[in-house]
Description:
By secondary structure, this protein is α/β, with parallel strands linked by helices. Helices cover 34% and strands 22% of the residues. The protein has seven helices and eight strands; from the N terminus they run βββαβαααβαβαββα. The strands form two sheets. Strands 4-5-6-3-7-8 form a six-stranded mixed β-sheet, sandwiched between helices. Strand 7 (182-186) and strand 8 (192-194) form a beta hairpin.
Amino acid sequence: MLKVDHLTIGYDGRELVRDISFELAPGECVLLAGPNGTGKTTLLKALAAEGVVLIPTNIPKVKGFTVEAFVRTGCYRESDWRGRISKEVEGRLDEALKMLGIKELRKRDISTLSDGEFQKACLATGLTRRAEVLLLDEPTAHLDVENRIDVLRTLREVARKTGTAVLFSSHDLHDALQVADRVFALTRDGRFLASGPFDKLRDPADVLRAAFPALETL
């Protein structure tokens, strides 16, 4: 579980949002929404810590790395000084690839993967490390409709099957709401809003309307 109390975020001496407080329960899949520039990426970076893995979404698909080698590289903290991982971690890697449906791609060069397949390979690094919380910044950006839906459903399945909490940002509100248990939002006037059990006064629709006032007119 991840618990945050009265966190303030900002950059370059500029305060974006203060008094951010929430809890993420095991197995939850939560959408982080908000207009550009409100601090979504900054918040995700601030939350990254031991047991909380931020999975980058702008990694280039460099030719020469197989899927297996790519995931191993992401598990450097679990490797020894020679870069070798234990049999236990090997087992977790195999389990992660199987769960994500890419086990048969383990020997494929990552440069040949579709964007959706590559996103799943990135997810595998977090699962292999047995993270308690996975943070993802726009994991469906630049994906076509089919891959976008597939990746989002995979996020929900990962949360349910492993008990790992997942917090992901997205501008694809309609698709993201199909898999999210709750919604967090950052507003242009510097507020943090949350729906669900930790804020009994708000439901997801209220949170999104506060973050995106234009939704009131749609």
